[in-house]
Amino acid sequence: MATEPLLVAENLHLRFGTTVALDSASVAVHAGEVLALMGPSGSGKSTLLHCLAGILHPDAGRVTYAGRDLTAMHDSERSALRRTELGLVFQFGQLVPELTCLENVALPLRLNGAPRRAALRSAAAWLERLEVSDVAGKRPGQVSGGQGQRVAVARSLVTRPRVVFADEPTGALDSLNGERVMQLFVAAARETGAAVVLVTHEARVAAYSDHEAVVRDGRVRTMEHVR
Amino acid sequence: MSVGHALLGLLEGGPRHGYDLKRSYDERFGADRPLAYGQVYSTLARLLKNGFVEVESEPGAGPERKRYAVTDAGVADVAAWLAQPEKPEPYLQSTLYTKVVLALLTGHDADAVLDTQRAEHLRLMRELTRRKDGGDLADQLVCDHALFHLEADLRWLELTAARVQQLAAHVRP
Amino acid sequence: MTRWAADLALGVRLSVGGGRSGWVRLGLIAAGVGLGVTMLLVAAALPAVLDARADRADARWVETQQTVDAGAPTVLTAPVRSVYHDAAVEGRLLQPESPDAPLPPGVDRQLAPGEIVLSPALDRLLASNDGAALRGRWGEEVVGLIAPEGLTGPGELTFYLGTDELTPDTADRLQTFGAPRGDAEAMSPVLVLLALVGMVVLLLPVGIFVSTAVRFGSEGRDRRLAALRLVGADAAMTRRVAAGETLAGAVLGLGLGALLFALVSRVAGSLVPGNLSFYPQDFRPVPWLVGLVVLLVPVTTVLVTLAALRQVVVEPLGVVRRSGERRRRLWWRLVVPAAGVVLLHPLVTGLDASAGTQVMIVAGLVLLLTGVALVLPWLVEATVHRLGPGGVAWDLAVRRLQLDSGTAVRAVSGIAVSVAGLVALQGIVGAIGALTAETTADTTTYQASVLDIDADADEVAAWTRELSAARGVTDVGTLTSLAAEPAGGGALGPDEVILESGPCAVLAQEAQVGACTDGDVFVVVPDGAAAPPAGSAYVLDGGGSAPWTLPASTRSADPAPGTVAVMDGGGPARILVTPGALAGVRPEVMAVTAYVALDPAVPDALDLMRTAAAQVDPRAYAASIEARGIATALGGIRQVLLVGTVALLVLIGASMLVNVVEQLRERRRLLAVLVAFGTRRRTLSASVLLQVAVPVALGLLLAVATGSVLALGLQVAVEAPLSFDWAGVGTTAGVAALVVLLTTAAGLPLLWRLTRPEGLRSE
């Protein structure tokens, strides 16, 4: 890779109590690429994702995003970064149950201070892009799991982030639904030029990535880059 | 070629007689299909010809009393074999299993064997995924069939990886 | 029956063996019920406290009409009323007429003139820096302390002072102390009403609080019940298990309540004003009331649990809430407060002290205030569905309330009921205060007065001298009451008059005399009295050697605002005379009132003056002109009300905190997700606060409306002028809102803990 990576983790160490979650983990994410983080349960892949997204602060090591040291930033700066340049998709339970799907998608824009109307307009466009315009007025509790995840994907992309972090985005879905979510997700991300960091233990999901890194016992093995 | 690599790997533990080798192989890998003596000796002969093993003669030796030892070239060949992913295809289990066990026996990183293989599987799966995205229904169904089989293999690999520690305790003498 | 027992027992076991969340829930219920039980036990102890105080007050009571057996040892006694700062100090003069004269309870020796025994509280006050201006008021010869059996409470300020200046004419002669006061102290309907309202206002929220406490952590409980259903329990069984679980918490709560009560009883006596204080050993709950608490609290908790379970269907695979999209209906919620209003009609149509009326009023109050708790959910729901969009925090809060306002409202209903009650209570206390307080008296010239000076003409000069000598006194003017009899005899007739003499400045205190020079005479005629015609002749010494005629120059004057005549009306006509108009007459002086001007720069000038007055004659009553009235007496009631309100607010705050914590816990994953994608803490906190603030605001609105209407009703009942105490209502509502928001804010640190990324981990 000739270009500088967009997001780099170097020698991250993190322990929860006596459990070592990350043990000198390093990984690099290039702009626009889809990277799958694979590995057995409890290997630390979600923890690594949280560190990369600036949600968790490693005990040692450095995370650099676009040349800025995330680990040296104040919490509010990292929050602001997550609002504007990073997107997040989780396995479940990420939509605010009181808000309609449309309002959920508009939420990140509104957190950034966008006017309500404009936010709702672009949220509607994203729902359409993910083929779930019909659930716009419904609450998350009233839609199916696949629809909910598409809404979550729409929400993660609505701010046009440079990196989207997805933690088992299809983990709670059946094959067909999971596949459709991944197709739409990756296609939309490639369209906007967003890099995707995808935590998954499913090979068929990882097959949507450009390359994978394996997390095992808190360490990362980056596999040869194959395009 | 895997029987040859398996024998080389077993020899890394120390020089052995042909009969011992067959017994060790059957114990580890030959539960269903024990090796025929003929196959052992023909394989050893080929390895000898390629310089991967050498014969240590014992006084008063007949053909049964020959002891085989692995050469440096043989050790390198095993390492290269372990590092080389198998072409992803269904029913690779016996080969992959042999590789994992041999990696453990010979002190190689069994996880690396698995990761290398996964990378190779994923390469093919990405290709299939791409083809499926662009293809018609028939293409999609065919690709899906292949994808699910490849995934099943990988799942088995993951499981093996997870059990490496148990396996290591069991395999290592 | 055995099935019942087995299921209840299973519930108890589940509650104590339910792991950490089970313990938390058990603890919350126990804490909630415990706090409620404490309040109930305190209420149950009040009758005992009042009885004990009354018994001891009876034991030292002075029966003024006592018939004395011939030859029995007797004592002469007279009351001393004094005030220090704002606290009443009521003592007694004792003049034993023989060595074995009766002693008041708590006093173990006869007092020689000048000797004094003090209550411990008065002793402490005198010894403290605070008591400087009090020292020497009744001499320095302290010979002992009054034992507890002679005091109503440890904080009471009282004393017995030995003297030799009493005569049977000016004092009471006693053979024994103590007499049942009988009906003399029977409470007036107004005070009974006050007490009833107070009890209902303070105890009803306790009931609401206890029933809220039972629902703490019920989500987790419902999940456990669902798990039971999965292994084969039927719906009835889960209800019994739930009842058993609650019962465990309630029983634990009873124990906790008893413990807390034991702690409270040690300090409770010192929380009330000194003249209402009581001894800890008097603070014993009445046994049958305790029985009622022990019986009713667990029964109530179980009933509430069962009622709450009707709102959900516990299925084997999870819990379905019934509330769903069903809108709340208003009409049946209005039935209860309407019934309350109907029952309260005696307030307007006429109040009496009969038991039937009391029951009606209590029931009416309970229903009306419960109605607040019933109408509030509807009000909140109807309102939040009409609220428009706003900022992100506002939207999050409003949408949350739209989806489920029940949880928030449950927490708020206790506050609403309390505030409604408190507003009503304040309305009535304020109205009674307004009825009697004297705020219009003129204090520009003189700021204090000394009343009840029993003096003759010679002593007037002595009084003036002594008072003038006190530090902080700048001027003393005296008003002397003269013995005036119509020249023809017959003092008690329509032509009876009061004749008082003093300089113009002093007369201005009594009437609106306008321009006044020495030699002027004024006549003040209250309603219903006849004005004496000019030329009426009087004798001013009871004998006949001091005749005086009302001059033709006599002017008529209105009474000064704030004087007794203005307040009560009636009474005979008063003739106010300047000294010049009495030139040459030597009238007989009956009594003297001294008006005193105080130096505002001297701290405690008023009390220094009181001390000076007491040194001349302890029986003289010295007081500030401004505070003359019973406003100070209401101060005690206000303070008790304040203590009750604070206790109530603490209870509300505690329940609010638990509620907020519970809601946050329930939503921890969502909160963690919101933080993960960059939501500002400010936004999240604002949303949590708004979620609480909106129902609280609506609750307070409803409470103030209900409370004000109730206050007006109560004011009509006690025939007080209708008034609306904006400041008091604002303060109550404001403090309640503040307590709620502060406790909610206190829950926010938990928000930060819950939103740490660990919350993202799936369970």
From TrEMBL, chain A:
<dbReference type="InterPro" id="IPR003593">
    <property type="entry name" value="AAA+_ATPase"/>
</dbReference>
<dbReference type="InterPro" id="IPR027417">
    <property type="entry name" value="P-loop_NTPase"/>
</dbReference>
<dbReference type="InterPro" id="IPR017911">
    <property type="entry name" value="MacB-like_ATP-bd"/>
</dbReference>
<dbReference type="GO" id="GO:0005886">
    <property type="term" value="C:plasma membrane"/>
</dbReference>
<dbReference type="Pfam" id="PF00005">
    <property type="entry name" value="ABC_tran"/>
</dbReference>
<keyword id="KW-0813">Transport</keyword>
<keyword id="KW-0067">ATP-binding</keyword>
<dbReference type="GO" id="GO:0022857">
    <property type="term" value="F:transmembrane transporter activity"/>
</dbReference>
<dbReference type="GO" id="GO:0005524">
    <property type="term" value="F:ATP binding"/>
</dbReference>
<protein>
    <submittedName>
        <fullName>ABC transport system ATP-binding protein</fullName>
    </submittedName>
</protein>
<dbReference type="InterPro" id="IPR015854">
    <property type="entry name" value="ABC_transpr_LolD-like"/>
</dbReference>
<dbReference type="InterPro" id="IPR003439">
    <property type="entry name" value="ABC_transporter-like_ATP-bd"/>
</dbReference>
<dbReference type="GO" id="GO:0016887">
    <property type="term" value="F:ATP hydrolysis activity"/>
</dbReference>
<feature type="domain" description="ABC transporter">
    <location>
        <begin position="7"/>
        <end position="226"/>
    </location>
</feature>
<keyword id="KW-0547">Nucleotide-binding</keyword>
UniProtKB/TrEMBL annotation, chain B:
<dbReference type="InterPro" id="IPR036390">
    <property type="entry name" value="WH_DNA-bd_sf"/>
</dbReference>
<protein>
    <submittedName>
        <fullName>DNA-binding transcriptional regulator, PadR family</fullName>
    </submittedName>
</protein>
<feature type="domain" description="Transcription regulator PadR N-terminal">
    <location>
        <begin position="7"/>
        <end position="77"/>
    </location>
</feature>
<dbReference type="Pfam" id="PF03551">
    <property type="entry name" value="PadR"/>
</dbReference>
<dbReference type="GO" id="GO:0003677">
    <property type="term" value="F:DNA binding"/>
</dbReference>
<keyword id="KW-0238">DNA-binding</keyword>
<dbReference type="InterPro" id="IPR036388">
    <property type="entry name" value="WH-like_DNA-bd_sf"/>
</dbReference>
<dbReference type="InterPro" id="IPR005149">
    <property type="entry name" value="Tscrpt_reg_PadR_N"/>
</dbReference>
TrEMBL record, chain C:
<feature type="transmembrane region" description="Helical">
    <location>
        <begin position="288"/>
        <end position="309"/>
    </location>
</feature>
<feature type="transmembrane region" description="Helical">
    <location>
        <begin position="640"/>
        <end position="661"/>
    </location>
</feature>
<feature type="transmembrane region" description="Helical">
    <location>
        <begin position="23"/>
        <end position="46"/>
    </location>
</feature>
<feature type="transmembrane region" description="Helical">
    <location>
        <begin position="726"/>
        <end position="752"/>
    </location>
</feature>
<feature type="transmembrane region" description="Helical">
    <location>
        <begin position="688"/>
        <end position="714"/>
    </location>
</feature>
<feature type="domain" description="ABC3 transporter permease C-terminal">
    <location>
        <begin position="198"/>
        <end position="312"/>
    </location>
</feature>
<feature type="domain" description="ABC3 transporter permease C-terminal">
    <location>
        <begin position="646"/>
        <end position="747"/>
    </location>
</feature>
<protein>
    <submittedName>
        <fullName>FtsX-like permease family protein</fullName>
    </submittedName>
</protein>
<keyword id="KW-1003">Cell membrane</keyword>
<dbReference type="GO" id="GO:0005886">
    <property type="term" value="C:plasma membrane"/>
</dbReference>
<dbReference type="InterPro" id="IPR038766">
    <property type="entry name" value="Membrane_comp_ABC_pdt"/>
</dbReference>
<keyword id="KW-1133">Transmembrane helix</keyword>
<keyword id="KW-0472">Membrane</keyword>
<dbReference type="InterPro" id="IPR003838">
    <property type="entry name" value="ABC3_permease_C"/>
</dbReference>
<feature type="transmembrane region" description="Helical">
    <location>
        <begin position="360"/>
        <end position="380"/>
    </location>
</feature>
